[in-house]
Specification:
It is a single chain. The protein is of the alpha/beta class. The chain folds into 2 domains: about 50 residues, no CATH class; about 200 residues, 3-Layer(aba) Sandwich (Rossmann fold), CATH 3.40.50.150. It contains 12 helices and 9 strands. It has a 7-stranded mixed beta sheet, sandwiched between helices. Strands 1-2 form a two-stranded antiparallel ribbon. Helix 1 crosses helix 2, helix 2 runs antiparallel to helix 3 and helix 5 packs parallel to helix 6. The protein starts with a helix and ends with a strand. The structure holds glutamine. Glutamine binds next to helix 6.
Length: about 270
């Protein structure tokens, strides 16, 4: 049996969804000259296949993931970018002008996928990405370098609570904070709970801890007329809107993700 066919059978036995697609991605990454294989490539394919069959996600094995229009480096230090988060990028771009220079802030930037995707589409805009995890910021920095965006982005390694930006600094603030209720984390797929960093998932007892913290700071740092775009978990959109409404922000829109779940809350100061 051909190696590709063997890989597919192995992935099927391990109940990995999309076995053909995943086999091809492993081949493309480990053995670009396939069907010609060196012994080293063969061993690497075996190793990658074993890791995948123990439910390590393919993007963490290969080391990169596509998001919006670019390929992002990922590791276990960052949440793997999700297609559902692209709605946040699309919504931001609908709002952001194409000419005027603006300042945007990304709280909990992780791989940098949201901020860098926006900067790619708006050459006159500058961004700041914050993350409490230095290991995550190093990945974000490598992504900015690979995408030639270093001159327009600054990364700050800090807890967002310890930052002191001046009032009315940003035209837009975006965030995809950790929002999974603590008790639910153990029920997630192994691909998520064992390989995405806990710090990027854990939203406290009710999943809303970060939104309460963000509501303390975002309304101050945002310019009047500026927008905040927040990713939220399933069923959280209304509560999150209320938390920010109490701080004086106005709801502009709630956008659904690809599965029809309310995923992105857009509010304005
Ligand atoms: N901003 C990053 C993303 O959207 C990281 C989010 C996180 O770690 N919670 O993928």
């Amino acid at each position: 049996m051909d190696i590709r066919e063997k890989m597919i059978q192995t992935l099927i036995s391990a109940k990995i969804p999309s076995p053909r697609l995943e086999a091809d991605r492993i081949l493309k990454s480990a053995a670009p000259q396939y069907p010609n294989l060196t012994e080293k490539e063969y061993q690497q394919i075996k190793d990658m296949l074993n890791r995948r069959c123990s439910h390590e996600p393919l993007d963490k094995i290969i080391g990169c993931r596509e998001f919006y229009k670019s390929v992002f480096k990922v590791s276990t230090a960052v949440l793997s970018p999700r297609p559902d988060t692209e709605i946040l990028v699309e919504s931001a771009l609908e709002i952001l002008p194409t000419e005027r220079p603006q300042q945007i802030l990304d709280l909990g930037t992780g791989s940098g996928c949201i901020l860098l995707s926006i900067l790619q589409e708006r050459p006159q805009i500058q961004g700041i990405g914050i993350d409490i995890s230095l290991a995550a910021l190093q990945i974000a920095q490598q992504n900015a370098q690979a995408q030639d965006l270093m001159t327009r982005v600054n990364f700050i390694n800090s807890n967002w609570k310890d930052l002191h930006f001046k009032a009315d600094t940003f035209d837009m603030i975006v965030s995809n904070p950790p929002y999974i209720p603590q008790e639910e984390i153990k029920t997630l797929d192994p691909e998520v709970k064992d390989y995405d960093p806990l710090i990027a998932l854990d939203g406290g007892t009710d999943g809303l801890k970060c939104y309460h913290e963000l509501a303390e700071i975002i309304p101050l740092w945002l310019k009047t007329g500026g927008h905040v775009l927040l990713e939220v978990g399933a069923g959280q959109a209304k509560t999150v809107t209320d938390i920010f409404r109490q701080r004086g922000l106005k709801l502009e829109a709630i956008k659904q993700d690809l599965a029809g779940i309310e995923r992105c809350v857009i509010m304005r100061k």
